[in-house]
Amino acid sequence: MSFIHSIKFRFTIWYLLVLAVLLIALGGGVYFYLSQSLYRSLDRALAIRSTQLCSIQDILGSIRQGEFQEQLGEIVILYFYSGDQLVEVSAPGIGVSLSQEFVSKTIAGSSAFTTSQTTEGETLRLVAVSINLSMLGPPPGIQPAALVIARSTRQIENILARLVSTLAIAVLLTLAVAAGGGIFLAGRALRPVDKIAQTAQEIEEKDLSQRINVNTKDELGRLATTLNAMIGRLEKAFQRQRQFTSDASHELRAPLAVIEAESSLALQKERPSGDYRQSLETISQEAKQMSSLIDQLLILARADAGKEQWNFTEVKLNKLIANLSTDVEILCQEKGLSFQLGETQDAVVKGDEVRLRELFMNLLNNAVRYSPAPGTVSVSLRREGQMAVVAIKDTGVGIPPEDIPFIFERFYRVDKSRSRAAGGTGLGLAISRHIAEAHGGKIEVESQVGSGSTFSVWLPLHPPSSQT
């Protein structure tokens, strides 16, 4: 990536633009303040000088007679009317452009500051004040007059010009230093980004164990922490995917191996019809096992893809549990277990009745499957606050404490050989938890090895005001 397309370059450009605007604004403010201060000082000096000249009779007389000697850089002009003629008295060779209207207003009694130019084009700042020449004696008839005192603004203009040059050089040098410093600081600040990009390029699907090593507490540190957490989640997801694929392959391989072995054995030579029937029954049983496994895999795949279709209606849990109890009681009798239907309070939830039936049947089938005869399987329904709680209890083999956190993972089995012999696929609890969470609920487990287990399904009531 070229430098001009980098964040570092854009960051530096924006930084320089903002700094340039601030420096120009600051320079403009300094220029304006100094210019106003210098011109105010010049105006005060002109006002003091006019007061001084107006109060000294001999100086006014010499001005009227054209004999007055101005200070260095000063121009003094006297205007008065002789009859209808405006007379101007000034030092020889001095010419100032003032309008007759301005002079007339001053003679009439007004005083004003203005800026004008000499005939040579030099800029002057001047003050015009009205005076009375009658106190100076003859010639008679000359009463009002205008005294104009002007000084060149060349010195102020030179000062301001030097200020502009100094500010321009200072701004350019500041921007140059700021550009170098900005590039350095931006590179230093964005160095973790390069480390993040480099680490991200090195991370592959086969090795997600690497992490971004950025030990800062700023925004980039939080970004690195977030990315590390995301990579961790991806690593776990890929691990689960690989484990899921491996487990699914293993589960499908076992019935396929049985089917292949039975079919090969049956085809090796002529056998009695009873042997063929036994082989076909074995193949049919394994095919059913495979079909059940594939159905459950499809359910989980749709759940992962978010493409499940739910039919949420008001479901009376007490009636649903009563209907399931009839089927479960038959299963218990076949295995020599006793079934108990405990207290079932009225409870209505908003859910998919078919999926809820599947949820409870998975848990009840597990209770029957892992409870040796003679034993007991019981189910009850109660309300706690705004939740309905379905408790399924058995007196089976129980679950070791270290296995409880993992029993809802896909294909996880506490005892793989026994679960396989019992016909389990290791997906029932994973599907049950998914159904419960999809209904806004959860599943809790309490178990003790050798004493049995209790699975409690918590589902939100709907609506709470309708419960009786």
Helix proportion of residues, in percent? 40-55%
CATH C-level class of the largest domain = Alpha Beta
Protein structure class: alpha+beta
Strand line-up in the sheet with most strands: 2-1-5-4-3
Could you tell me the strand content as a percent range?
Answer: 15-25%
- CATH superfamily (homologous) name of the largest domain: Histidine kinase-like ATPase, C-terminal domain
CATH fold topology of the largest domain: Heat Shock Protein 90
Pattern of helices and strands: HHEEHEEEHHHHEHEEHEEHHEE
Low-confidence stretches: 417-421
First-to-last CA distance: 70 Å
Mean pLDDT: 81
Biggest sheet, in brief? 5 strands, antiparallel
The backbone outline, from C-alpha atoms, is: rod-shaped
Q: Which features characterize this protein?
A:
alpha+beta; 5-stranded antiparallel β-sheet; 468 residues; 11 helices; rod-shaped; 12 strands; 5-stranded mixed β-sheet; Helix Hairpins; 4 domains
Describe the fold and architecture.
The protein has 468 residues and is of the alpha+beta class. The chain folds into four domains: 1-55 and 153-189; 74-152; 219-305, Orthogonal Bundle (Helix Hairpins); 313-466, Histidine kinase-like ATPase, C-terminal domain (Heat Shock Protein 90, 2-Layer Sandwich). The protein contains eleven helices and twelve strands. The protein has helices spanning 7-55, 57-64, 100-107, 154-189, 191-202, 219-268, 273-305, 317-335, 353-369, 416-422, 428-438; strands at residues 74-82, 85-89, 112-117, 123-132, 144-152, 313-316, 338-344, 348-351, 376-384, 387-394, 442-448, 452-460. The strands form three sheets. It has a five-stranded antiparallel β-sheet, sandwiched between helices. Strand 9 and strand 10 (387-394) form a beta hairpin. Helix 6 (219-268) runs antiparallel to helix 7 and helix 7 runs parallel beside helix 11 (428-438). The radius of gyration is 51 Å and the shape is rod-shaped. The two termini are 70 Å apart. The relative contact order is 0.06. The model is unreliable at 417-421 (pLDDT under 50).
